[in-house]
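Assemble and predict.
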Amino acid sequence: MTLQPPPAVPFRRTWSAAWTGAVAVAVLLAMALADRADGRAVAAAVALVALVAAWQTVRAGQVRAMRLLPRGESGPERPPDPTASFAAAFELLPDPALVVTAAEPEDMASRRVEAANRAARELLRIPRQGALLVAAVRDPEVLEAVEESLFGAMARTAVWESGGVQERVWRVWTTPLASAPERRVLVVLHEETDVRRAERTRADFLANASHELRTPLASLSGFVETLRGHARDDPAVRQRFLAIMAGQAERMARLVDDLLSLSRAELNEHVPPVGAVDLRLAVADVVDALAPLASRRSVQLETELPAEPVLISGERDQVVQVVQNLVDNGLNYSAPGGRVCIELSPGLDAEAAGAAAHPGAARLSLLTPDREPGRRYAAVRVRDFGPGIEREHLPRLAERFYRVAGQKSGERPGTGLGLAIVRHIVNRHRGGLSVDSTPGDGSTFIAYFPQPDAVSG
Amino acid sequence: MTNTDNHIVRAFGDELSQLAAEVARMGGLAEAQVSDAVDCVARRDTTLAHQVIERDEKLDALQRDIEKRAIRLIALRQPKANDLRRAVAAMKLAHSLERTGDLARNIAKRSLVLADAAPMSPLTRSIERMGRLVTSRMKEVLDAYTGSDLEAALAVWRRDEEVDEHYNSLFRELLTYMMGDPRTISPCAHLLFVGKNLERIGDHATNVAEIIHYEMTGEDMIDARPKADALAPAPAGV
C-alpha cells in the first residue's frame, strides 16, 4: 500500500459502492456519537477508518480488474482516480495517522510503519515509510494497543504523553484494517493537550488566587475594622492607614493581573505563535517604558543592541512581557545608584545562547528547548549588580510564588509570578531560559528565542 | 550459492535490528516506569504504585531476553567491528535500563510509605519537577538511540549537571524541613531517597549516552563531564 496511485483502470462501480458505504457509515456513526463529549473526535477517527477501508477495497477491486482485463481495453472514458485523492486526504489530515504492519507476533522488528501522514512525520520524526514502530512510539500502553489491534483484531484507545518541553497529551486510536496473513492497523492520534491543560490551569488558578489573596484581604479588613473603631476621629492615622490600604489593593490588582497572564501563558503553551517580532524594537520599547521607574530608583538602564533588526518567531505582546518582567526584576534587585544592562545577541546556537555570561558564576538552565539541529537563536541578557542568588535557589526560581529567603525585592515587591510567566511564554515560543549568578555580584537572566529560518545566521 | 549468502546476511541484519527494537521497547517501558513512579509520589496514588512494582518484572524478563539473544548472536554469527559493537551495546543498554527500572520500583515502594504520612506539597512539587527533568532526559537519550543521532546523545551527556543541581537544591530544602520539625524526618528521609534515586536514573541516562557513543564510534568518552558536587563544603548554617 504505497501512496503512489496505480494506473487508472475502470472500477467506477466498486469505487462508488465503497465510497457511498464509507460516507454512510461515517455519517451514521458521527450522528450517533455527536452528543458524547468526545463525539466529534471519535467520529473523525471512524470516518478515517471508513476512508482507508474504502481505499483498500478500491485497490483490491483494481487488482482484480487488472487481472481480468488486458491492458489497453480500459474503455473510452477515464474516470478520475480516487486512490490518489484518498492518499492525498490521508496525507493532509490534520491529525497524525499511521498504518502499521506486522509479520510475526514474536518479532518486534517486524512491526513497521507502512505509511505515515505529514502530521505524523512531523510529530514522530520518522520517514514516510519503513520506520520501525518502536522508533516512532515506545510507550508500552500504545504498543499494547497496537498489538491487540494487530493480533486480537480489536479496536483500542490509549493515552499517550509525547514528552518534550511542551508536555503534549494525545488520545491514540488503533483499529485493525486487515487480518492475517497481512496484518495491518490504522493508528490515529488526536491531541488532547487543551482539555488536560484547561483542567489543570483552572484548578491551579483557583488554588493560587484564593491562597495569595487571603493575606492582603485580611490586612484590608483589619484596617477597615480599625478605621471604624478607635481610629475614627484621628485624621493623621486615617491618612496613614488609607495609604497602606491603597498599597494592598494595588498589590491585589497586580496579583490578579499576573495570575491571569500566567493562566493565559500556560493555556496556549503548546500552540506555537505565528508571526515575527523585531526583538530589538521590543527591547527598546521596554526600556522606554521603564525609564521613569528606573530614574525614580536612580538605577541606570544600559543597552547594547545590534544595528540591524533582530527578527524572531513570536507574538509581540508576549515577547514584550518577557523582556519587561526580566528588566523589572533587575530593577527590583538593584540598589539606588546601580545599573541594569540589557544586551541582545542574534544568530547563536542553543548552547551558546544559554551559556554562562560570566566564568565562575553558578549557571542553571531553567528551560531548555527540544533539540533542533541548525536552529539559530536570539538571546536577551539582562544583568543586574544586586545581591545575586545562592546556587541552591536556582532550580526553584521559575516556580510560582517562590521567593529567595532573606532577599528584599525593594519597595515595590513583586508577586512572585514574573519568572513563572516568563518561563511559560518562552516555552510557548520554543525558546530557552537560563540564569547565572554570583552571590554579591549580581545575576544575569538569559531568554533566547528561535529565529525564523530565512534570516538565521 | 550467492542466494544463500544473501539470505544469511539478511537474516543476520534482521537479528540485529530485532535486538535494537527490543532495546527500544524496553526503553519505552523503563521511561513509563520512571514517570509513573514520580506520579505515584506527586499524586499519592497507591494503585499506580502497586502497578509500577509489579511491572518491574517485565523489565527484568526483557533484559534476560535481550542478553540471551545478544549472546546467541555473538556466538553463532561471530560479528566483527560495528556489528559486534551493536550486539554488545544492546546488552549494556539492557543492563542500564533494568537498573533504571529497579530505581523506579524503589521510588514506587517509598511512595506507599509516603502516602500514609501527612502530605508535604512543596516538597513533592520539587520531586515532581526533578522527576520531569529526568524523564525528559531519558526520552531524549532513547530518541537518540532509535534515531542513531550521536549529536543528540552527546547533548544529553553534556547536560547531566542540571539534574545534580536539582538534587542539591532538594537536599537543602529537605534539611531545612527536618531541622524545623522533627516529625517530618521520616517522610523527608524517604523523599531524600526518592531524590537520590532520580539523580541516579539521570546518571543512567548519561550512561546510555556513553553506550550510544561507543556503539557508533567504537571509542570511549574520556572528557570529564562537568559535575556539581553534592558533597562540596556547605556554607555555614547547614
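The radius of gyration of chain B is 20 Å.
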